[in-house]
Amino acid sequence: MFYRPEDGHGLPHNPFNAIVTPRPIGWISTRGSDGHDNLAPYSFFNAVAYFPPQVMFSSTSTKPDRGDTKDTVAQVRESGVFCVNIVEYAMRDAMNRTSGPWDSTVDEFADAGIEKAQCDTIDCARVAAAPANLECKLTQIVQLPGDANFAVFGEVTGVHMRDDCLKDGIFDVLSFNPLSRMGYRDYTVVRDKFSLTRPGE
Questions:
Q1: Where is the Flavin reductase like domain (predicted)?
Q2: Is residue 83 a contact partner of residue 126, using CB atoms and an 8 Å limit?
C-alpha cells in the first residue's frame, strides 16, 4: 500500500502513529502564572542533544479555554520552564488519567492521586515517585505547519534519579520498565534489552 497523506489513507484509523513506534512518553509538568500545576503526557517527545542536555516535546491540539494550544504549552509560555517525568509501567493508569481534557484549573496531580515534589532548579512541581525527572528551562517554541502544532525545546538544568533505579552506576531501565506509546490506543513496555558495539569501538 502507498498513500499520500494529503489525499488520505482510506483506512479505518490513521496508521502514522503505528508506523513511528515505539515512542517515549514525556510526562510534562508545568506551573502557570496563577500557581496552578498541570501534568500531561506527550508521546511526541525525545532527547535531542548531549551538551548541554536538551529535550523536546510537541503539542498538536487545542482546548477551548486555551485558544491556539493546550494547558502545557500555555503554561510553558508563561513560566519559561517545565519538567519531564519518566513514566514507568506501574504508573500507567495514573499517566492515562492525566491525559483527560480537564479544565485548566484542574490539578492533575491531585485528580490522579499523584504525589508531587518541588523541583530544585525551576519553579515547577514534579512527580515525586517517577524513576527520573528532568528539570528544564525553555529555549524555544517552534510553530510547525498546522494550526495547533508546537514543538517545545528545553535545556535540562536538573536531573533526579530514583535510588532504586541505579545499579552499579548505571540507570537501569529494567528496574522500572519504561512505558512507550504506539499507534491507536496501544502502548508497550520495555522488559528486556541487549547491547551492540559500534564499528571501531
A1: 18-173
A2: yes
Q: Please say whether the beta carbons of 85 and 23 come within 8 A.
A: no
Burial class (CB in 10 A: 0-12, 13-18, 19+), 23: middle
Whole-angstrom distance, CA of residue 115 vs CA of residue 113: 7
Sort strands 116-118 and 170-171 into parallel, antiparallel or unpaired: unpaired
Tell me the three cell numbers of residue 108.
492533575
For the chain, residues with pLDDT lower than 70 are: none
> φ and ψ at 47, to 5 degrees?
-80, 145
C-alpha cell at 26: 514525556
Q: Which CATH number fits domain 26-40+48-163: 3.40.50.300, 3.40.50.1580, 2.30.110.10, 2.40.10.10?
A: 2.30.110.10
- Reduced to 3 states, what is the DSSP secondary structure of residue 145? coil
Rounded to a whole number, what is the largest CA-CA distance in the chain? 54
Tens of pLDDT, residues 97-135: 999 999 999 999 999 999 999 999 999 999 999 999 999
Domain boundaries, the chain: 26-40+48-163
User: Residue 179, SS3?
Assistant: strand
